[in-house]
């Protein structure tokens, strides 16, 4: 009886801790409430199975505990029970997978008109790039990375000249404006993660990965690296600030472009193209 009661208390205590725990997700700040709903569905399904299994164990411990003179029955298989368990498990797994597949389709389908923003991770800082007035990001290559070109932009690409480059600073986004976040890594695996955004993706050297979001409220949010990337992984942090349209454009006007950060090379390039001396 004592063991059966302990098992039931474990099940009840786990449910109560889940419902009344002070630790929960940060308040969401993007359109990805679908991800929260999918996780909640998984919680409820796995929680129901957990409670059912613990309750069944408690019943068996109480119902079939040892008694003097009583012998255990040998029942090697029960086809009816096996069918019920197989069907129930299949339904439960499908119920957990189906919402995730729907959300994943939405996650990789970027809406038309989304603004592209590039995030580059390196040990142990974040750098950001936004399109300039032409609305298009220029090309880049890690072989171009230098002290005056931290994101490796191509000096010969006209679209790169007006790109806004922010090294180890704050990234601003416009509220209610879809953003496609392009992710690059210079050295090892990183992961650009803002808990309030819910969306994240690994950053793999040699690849450009992405996710997209639509910020739904203004505020200042912490950027974390969610992939162990070395000794200073814990201090690889930055800020993302979501602004109203007017404040966002006012901030954007104050930022320096790639051409302004590399004036000497920009002058040489312009002179060469014009045929001057």
Automatic annotation (TrEMBL):
Transmembrane segments: 41-62, 83-104
Catalysed transformations (reactions): 4 Fe(II)-[cytochrome c] + O2 + 8 H(+)(in) = 4 Fe(III)-[cytochrome c] + 2 H2O + 4 H(+)(out)
Membrane topology, as annotated: Multi-pass membrane protein
Annotated EC: 7.1.1.9
Stretches assigned to the Cytochrome oxidase subunit II copper A binding domain: 112-254
Top-level class of the enzyme under EC nomenclature: translocase
Primary localization class, coarse: membrane
Domain of life, per lineage: Bacteria
Compartment(s) where it occurs, according to its Swiss-Prot or TrEMBL record: Membrane
Cross-referenced Pfam families: COX2 (PF00116)
InterPro entries, per the entry: CcO_II (IPR045187), CcO_II-like_C (IPR002429), Copper_CuA (IPR001505), Cupredoxin (IPR008972), Cyt_c_oxidase_su2_TM_sf (IPR036257)
Keywords carried by this UniProt record: Copper, Electron transport, Membrane, Metal-binding, Translocase, Transmembrane, Transmembrane helix, Transport
Family recorded in the similarity comment: Belongs to the cytochrome c oxidase subunit 2 family.
Entry protein name: cytochrome-c oxidase
């Amino acid at each position: 009886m004592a063991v059966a009661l302990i098992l039931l208390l474990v099940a009840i205590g786990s449910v109560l801790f889940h419902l009344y725990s002070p630790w929960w997700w940060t308040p969401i700040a993007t359109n990805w409430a679908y991800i929260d709903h999918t996780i909640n569905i998984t919680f409820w399904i796995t929680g129901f199975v957990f409670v059912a299994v613990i309750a069944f164990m408690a019943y068996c411990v109480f119902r079939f505990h040892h008694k003097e003179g009583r012998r255990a029955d040998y029942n090697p298989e029960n086809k009816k029970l096996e069918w019920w368990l197989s069907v129930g498990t299949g339904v439960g797994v499908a119920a957990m997978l189906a919402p995730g597949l729907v959300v994943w389709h939405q996650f990789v389908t970027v809406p038309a008109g989304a603004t592209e923003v590039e995030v580059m991770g390196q040990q142990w800082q974040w750098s950001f790039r936004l399109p300039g007035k032409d609305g298009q990001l220029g090309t880049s290559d890690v072989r171009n990375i230098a002290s005056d070109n931290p994101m490796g932009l191509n000096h010969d690409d006209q679209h790169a000249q007006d790109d806004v480059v922010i090294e180890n600073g704050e990234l601003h986004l416009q509220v209610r404006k879809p953003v496609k976040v392009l992710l690059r890594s210079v050295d090892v695996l990183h992961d650009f993660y803002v808990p309030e955004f819910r969306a994240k993706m690994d950053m793999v050297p040699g690849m450009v990965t992405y996710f997209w979001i639509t910020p739904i409220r203004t505020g200042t949010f912490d950027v974390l690296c969610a992939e162990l990337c070395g000794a200073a992984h814990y201090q690889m942090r930055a800020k993302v600030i979501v602004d109203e349209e007017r404040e966002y454009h006012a901030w954007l006007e104050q930022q320096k472009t790639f051409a302004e950060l590399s004036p000497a090379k920009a002058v040489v390039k312009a002179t060469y193209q014009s045929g001057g001396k």
